[in-house]
Amino acid sequence: MPTSPARGRFITLEGGEGAGKSTQLRRLAETLRASLHTRGVGLVTTREPGGSPGAEEIRGLLVTGETGRWSATTEALLHTAARRDHLERTVWPALEAGTWVLCDRFFDSTMAYQGYGLGLGRELVETLQTAALGGFRPDLTLILDIDVETGLRRAVARHGGEDRYERMDIGFHQRLRDGFLDIARREPDRCAVVDADADPDGVQARIWDAVSSRLGLAQGRES
Length: 223
Ligand SMILES: Nc1ncnc2c1ncn2[C@@H]1O[C@H](COP(=O)(O)OP(=O)(O)O)[C@@H](O)[C@H]1O
Ligand SMILES: [Mg+2]
Prior knowledge:
There is one protein chain. By secondary structure, the chain is α/β, with parallel strands linked by helices. It has one domain (10-214): P-loop containing nucleotide triphosphate hydrolases (Rossmann fold, 3-Layer(aba) Sandwich). The chain is 53% helix and 12% strand. The chain has eight helices and five strands; from the N terminus they run βαβααβααβααβα. It has helices at 21-37, 53-63, 72-96, 107-117, 122-133, 148-157, 170-186, 200-215; strands spanning 10-15, 43-47, 100-104, 140-145, 191-195. α2 (53-63) packs antiparallel against α3 (72-96) and α3 packs antiparallel against α4 (107-117). The two termini are 33 Å apart. Magnesium ion binds next to α1.
C-alpha cells in the first residue's frame, strides 16, 4: 500500500447498471486532467473488474455467460482476485508515482452486488476485502444514484455482450441500489451520492461540484 506523502488520489465511480458511470468517467477525466495539469500531476483512468491484463481475463469470466454461472461466494472471490491484481499492477504503482487514478467501479460494487444483491451479507464481503487489500480505500467515491427502471432502460438501449448482471431480476437491482445508498450512509466522508437522473451535462456538473469541493480543486482551463 502506498504511504508516500506525495501519493496520488484514488477516486472511484459506483452505481447500478446504466447509472452513467462510464459516460461520466470520460467527462470527469477530461475536467480533472485539465485541473491537475496545472500542477504537473497526471491522471490514469481504469475500470473493474479488469484494469490489468490478468484482471481483464477474470472479467471475461464474470460479465458473460449464464446469470447463475457462479455462486455468490465464488463470484466475490473472483472479483476480489481481479482487484488485487489490478491494485498491484496498475493502481498502486500509479499512486506511488503521484499520479491520480480514476476507476469505473471498485470494492463497493462487490459489497453492493454480492453482499446486498446476491445476499452474501456485509461481513463476508468486508472480510474478503480486508484480507486482499488491507485497509486500502478510495479517497473519494462518487455513487451515481438512479431509479432502477431508468438505469436498466439506459443499459438495455446501450448495445454490448457484457450483460450478465443486467439480466438479473428487478429485485436484485433494487437491492443493489439500496445497498449503494447504505454504503454511502455508513461512510459519508468517503462517499458522495450524486443524483444521476438528469441529462449528461447536468450529472457532470453535479459530479464536478462534489469532486472539486471535497478534493479542493479548481477548474483547470481557467487558470
Ligand atoms: N444522463 C444520461 N441521460 C441519458 N442517457 C444517459 C445518461 N448517461 C448515460 N446515458 C446513456 O445510458 C447508457 C448507459 O450509460 P453508461 O455510462 O454506459 O452507464 P454505466 O457505465 O453506469 O452502466 C449509455 O448508452 C449512455 O449513453
Ligand atoms: Mg459502464
